């Protein structure tokens, strides 16, 4: 064990040196919240918010990744190094199934009161990596942190959209790339997700961009979990007014809608339903704007502006 820790430390130190050394183009960058490991040529993110094992695959997938399967010692060292930054989140992290059998980390029942009871077996156990660097198993229903990984070869640089990954669609006439992540989020969660991707919640700046967004909202499968499938959160917000002040929607860049270049609301919108709609969205039926409750979960659109060069 001690020998192992020394190996881990020296690897961690070496990779730190590699990462801080100035080498143009040497360091790959996926999303802002992923860390590159040159030893595995892959990107990793430790999700310190916990989830049940069966939720992990989808959560990684939203980020274009998969649950990390510990296929090499470098993967384990990566988990070890990332966990070290968070002393408070317990000893175990969900990982993907490596197909091998491992010992259970669960305490065996001291006295089996009912030998006929085989609930535990039905519950099933799933793979974890421990702080000590072992692969063990725990009950799949536990809430644990988890780790996602994407290999650099699966997240190639997209020169049209200036982003790593394959999910952004380029609209050359508009000069932007767009993505509808496959998850429903509150407005703030959506804002953060786009930011982590190196993008921002979509802002419509022209009639042509309106056409493109309208088209985009009518392509592709519905996002699961959305409160209504025909609204997409976008980069507009208003402050909740004090008293009878008028409600004024601005873009996330603090422009008025007119300054942004597109100010068409859907019919009878903004209606501030239940006096609680201060976040902007795009309505699929006409591609125009609608106000929504910021805390409800909807699909959303991320945008990356790209400079057109001949
Ligand atoms: C949107 O779709 C319509 C019909 O499919 C097409 O005519 C139009 O050119 C598209 N607009 C953009 C900006 O892609
Ligand atoms: C946004 O713009 C308004 C109007 O120009 C200005 O009063 C306000 O201070 C701006 N807000 C920020 C955070 O810059
Ligand atoms: Ca735009
Ligand atoms: Ca509304």
UniProtKB/TrEMBL annotation:
Gene3D superfamilies tied to this protein: Mannose-Binding Protein A, subunit A
InterPro entries: C-type_lectin-like (IPR001304), C-type_lectin-like/link_sf (IPR016186), C-type_lectin/snaclec_domain (IPR050111), C-type_lectin_CS (IPR018378), CTDL_fold (IPR016187)
Presence of keyword Disulfide bond: yes
Endpoints of the signal sequence: 1-20
Record keywords: Disulfide bond, Lectin, Signal
Domain C-type lectin: 173-303
Pfam family, one: Lectin_C
One GO molecular-function entry: carbohydrate binding
Protein name: C-type lectin 3
Species this chain originates from: Helicoverpa armigera (Cotton bollworm)
Lineage: Eukaryota, Metazoa, Ecdysozoa, Arthropoda, Hexapoda
């Amino acid at each position: 064990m001690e020998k192992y820790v020394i190996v881990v430390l020296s690897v961690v130190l070496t990779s730190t040196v590699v990462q801080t050394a100035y080498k143009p183009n040497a360091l790959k960058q996926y999303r802002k919240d992923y860390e590159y490991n040159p030893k595995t040529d892959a990107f990793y993110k430790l999700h310190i918010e916990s989830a049940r094992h069966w939720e992990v695959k989808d959560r990684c997938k939203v980020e274009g990744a998969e649950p990390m399967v510990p296929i090499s010692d470098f993967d384990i060292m990566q988990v070890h190094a990332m966990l070290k930054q968070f002393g408070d989140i317990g000893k175990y992290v969900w990982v993907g199934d490596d197909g091998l059998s491992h010992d259970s980390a669960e305490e065996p029942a001291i006295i089996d009161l009912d030998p006929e009871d085989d609930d535990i077996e039905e519950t099933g156990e799933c793979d974890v990596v421990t702080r000590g660097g072992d692969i063990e198993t725990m009950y799949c229903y536990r809430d644990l942190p988890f780790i996602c990984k994407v290999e650099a070869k699966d997240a190639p640089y997209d020169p049209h959209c200036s982003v790593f990954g394959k999910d952004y669609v380029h609209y050359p006439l508009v000069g932007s790339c767009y993505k509808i992540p496959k998850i429903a989020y509150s407005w703030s969660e959506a804002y953060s997700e786009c930011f982590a991707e190196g993008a921002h919640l979509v802002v419509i700046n022209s009639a042509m961009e309106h056409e493109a967004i309208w088209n985009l909202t009518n392509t592709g499968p519905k996002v699961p979990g959305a409160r209504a499938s025909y609204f997409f959160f976008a980069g507009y917000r208003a402050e909740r007014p004090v008293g009878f002040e008028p409600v004024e929607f601005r873009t996330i860049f603090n422009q008025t809608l007119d300054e942004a270049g597109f100010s068409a609301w859907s019919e009878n919108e903004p209606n501030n339903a239940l006096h609680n709609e201060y976040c902007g969205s795009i309505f699929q039926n006409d591609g125009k704007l609608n106000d929504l409750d910021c805390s409800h979960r909807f699909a959303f659109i991320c945008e990356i502006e790209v400079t057109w060069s001949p």
